[in-house]
Specification:
The protein is an alpha+beta fold. Helices cover about 50% and strands about 10% of the residues. The strands form four sheets. Strands 10-9-13-11-12 form a five-stranded mixed sheet.
């Protein structure tokens, strides 16, 4: 969802499940109501301590299966952490109060319009919004469940506009997914069976180009182990087949502390693609497809994601704490170009690790509140000047500052848009589907949130690796960090006591899944990559129609390259007949080299050969990457286990470059 920002503040639109985790209040709470609620909690009438004491045996709320995996006694640490958070927010005195995020119910039909806009399908209700041909290119790549999800949103929008008696007409959904040259009567179109077959035809046609998903989901699932994550078939298609075969029966989730299933990704010869490996242009396509796929996955499970608006009126424009992530990264990038994770967070993590991860109760035991506040003020004034005395910062104080940084973000780290969707993940019937949904939600996060979340998850795993010394297991870390990640400013004023009890175990389970499976969750599924490649192929076909322009561009490129006497691009070499590829490295003294193709040649072999032939390269091996550029992809940093011959078959027009990775 795009942010609309001006000098006064930010307006965000969020998608939330119908679980009413963030209930749609009839209006914005008054200051008196908020103050009264806060006062009652501070005076003990609605206190965290009372909440914990009022849980004799089992808490008074419905326990979902996922809650069985957490020891109830371990949740004491959650409520202790909530109490510490509440106390740390009191007595701030001269500190400028941070306004709370307020949620509003959107107008009827606004949710569908917002969703279609974010999915790149705004042309369906606003002909001037985007390129119709680009939209049709996107629609042509959709699977049957993805197409059904788009149909559902368009139909809802049609119904809303009819109620409003608007003259502006949304295209009939039957026309959107009708195959060219396939005449069909209206009576036939009304048939659900015909509609389903038509969607299936479109998606089969859209993926039978050498970039498809291969066998259908049912066929794939028969032979795959239950712990394999299949990235080649649409997750929503897999879920639909599971639903049909199981007839709605779910699986029991009884995983203990660190005994979660050892899920793994099925290796792909064309290489895995991580978030950050693609160009911004292709990541934009990924975002749209992932949004459609995520919604389709929830649709398949019957989980409706409702939209809310959150209005934040005033945010800090500089500093360290309480500053929007995007703003903080902008000021950091002026000092250190290429920074992806706030420097203050990096420094706090490195300090904790330098002082030792063996400290007992790390992250759980809070630092002294008054001292932490004083250090926070000192950091604000001295950090960027390099004058802060890091040697005097205690371990528990540093950990408290790290949690404070996350908690004080004006907008939640998991964003207002998707916070409740993260929580709704636990409603999906299988652990595999929960991980697939988390994978999609991680990819939907803005780059700043996604990179910061990744840095935190990696740090938490390093803490857990020292659990024998610091007594912090996966569950311990998840329970302590959950309220810091999920409870944004004013969050507890918007939920009931019963909802907060339920959220305690739910959010702790989500955090432990994020930590445990972080190596899987930042991967872009291959079926999404195939859809991106197909869109790029369709765009190239559209561009090739204007032959005069292409001829002019080639002439300009020739004149520009002529004096430099560069090597011929790969497009001028018949790689299939010559049996080699030409790898270019314009940043280094060895400008290019020819590499013989074999069945076993991997990207790592190409990098090793380059380093052995160019002794002048002073860059570390881990800072180099072989890139796939052009053809049906804009730019992609290759996984070192990519088999080059297989990838060349997938993208025969690509060129290959060795460049330094931008970290």
């Amino acid at each position: 969802m795009s942010h609309q920002q001006d000098a006064k503040g930010v307006i965000l639109t969020g998608y939330f499940s119908n679980s009413e985790v963030l209930p749609p209040a009839s209006g914005v709470k008054s200051a008196e109501e908020i103050e009264s609620s806060s006062l009652s909690r501070r005076t003990g009438h609605y206190s965290v301590q009372n909440r914990a004491k009022n849980v004799p045996g089992k808490p008074p709320y419905h326990r979902c299966n996922s809650q069985d995996s957490l020891d109830e006694l371990a949740m004491d640490d959650y409520w202790t952490e909530v109490k510490n958070i509440t106390l740390s927010g009191e007595g701030e005195g001269d500190a400028e109060p941070q306004e709370e995020v307020q949620l509003k119910v959107p107008d009827e039909g606004e949710q569908e319009e917002a969703w279609l806009m974010e999915a790149g399908l705004a042309t369906l209700f606003d002909e001037s919004a985007s390129d119709p041909e680009e939209m049709m290119g996107l629609l042509s790549t959709l699977t049957r469940t993805q197409a059904a999800t788009v149909e559902k949103r368009v139909e809802k929008l049609q119904q809303t506009l009819r109620k409003r008696n608007k003259q502006h007409q949304v295209p009939d959904v039957r026309d959107i997914f009708k195959l060219p040259g396939t005449p069909e009567s209206k009576d036939e179109a009304k048939s659900p069976e015909r509609s389903e077959n038509r969607i299936k035809d479109i998606t089969t046609d859209g993926q039978a180009t050498g970039l498809g998903n291969g066998a259908g989901p049912a066929e794939q699932r028969v032979s795959e182990p239950e712990t394999d994550i299949n990235l080649e078939v649409s997750f929503s298609d897999q879920a639909l087949s599971y639903k049909e075969d199981s007839k709605g029966s779910g699986e029991a989730l009884t995983d203990a502390d660190d005994k979660l299933p050892n899920f793994k990704l099925r290796r792909d010869k064309t290489g895995l693609t991580k978030a950050g490996d693609l160009s911004p242009q292709d990541m934009k396509k990924v975002h749209r497809l992932v949004l459609i796929e995520m919604t389709a996955l929830f649709d398949t499970a019957g989980i409706d994601l409702k939209a809310h608006k959150a209005v934040k009126l005033k945010v800090k424009e500089s500093g360290l704490f309480g500053v929007p992530l995007a703003t903080l990264l902008e000021q950091d990038q002026r000092r250190q170009p290429g920074t992806k994770v706030p420097i203050i967070l990096q420094r706090l993590i490195s300090h904790i690790e330098e002082e030792g991860l063996d400290t007992e109760g790390l992250l759980r035991i809070p630092g002294a509140a008054t001292r932490v506040k004083a250090v926070c003020v000192e950091l604000e004034g001295k950090f960027y000047e390099g004058l802060f005395p890091w040697e005097s910062l205690k371990q528990h104080d540093a950990a408290s500052l790290l949690k404070l940084f996350i908690r004080e973000l004006p907008h939640p780290l998991l964003t207002v848009e998707y916070l409740s969707a993260f929580i709704a993940v636990l409603k999906l019937p299988t652990k595999k589907q929960q991980l697939q949904a988390l994978n999609l939600l991680v990819l939907l996060l803005p780059e700043s949130s996604r990179d910061t979340l990744k840095a935190l998850m990696e740090f938490f795993q390093r803490v857990i690796d020292h659990k024998e010394q610091n007594k912090m297991t996966l569950n311990n870390v998840a329970v302590v960090m959950a309220p810091n990640i999920f409870m944004f400013k004013g969050f507890r004023n918007k939920i009931s006591e019963q909802q907060e009890f339920s959220l305690a175990t739910e959010t702790a389970n989500i955090v432990r899944l994020l930590i445990r499976y972080q190596n899987l969750l930042w991967t872009i599924p291959k079926f999404i990559m195939n859809q991106v490649r197909k869109q790029n192929t369709e765009n190239q076909k559209k561009m090739s129609k204007d032959r005069a322009m292409m001829k002019l561009l080639k002439k300009m490129a020739y004149e520009r390259e002529k004096p430099e006497k560069q090597e011929k691009p790969l497009s001028e070499v018949d790689s299939s007949s010559q049996g080699f590829i030409r790898v270019q490295a314009p940043q280094f003294s060895k400008v290019s080299m020819a590499v013989q193709l074999t069945e076993e040649l991997q990207a790592s072999d190409v990098l090793s050969r380059f380093l052995s032939q160019d002794s002048s390269v002073s860059v570390k091996r881990e800072d180099l990457c072989l890139y796939e550029i052009g053809g049906n992809i804009q730019e992609r940093c290759l996984d070192e286990e990519t088999y080059m011959k297989d990838l060349l078959e997938l993208n025969p027009s690509a060129e290959w470059f060795i460049k330094c990775i931008q970290r």
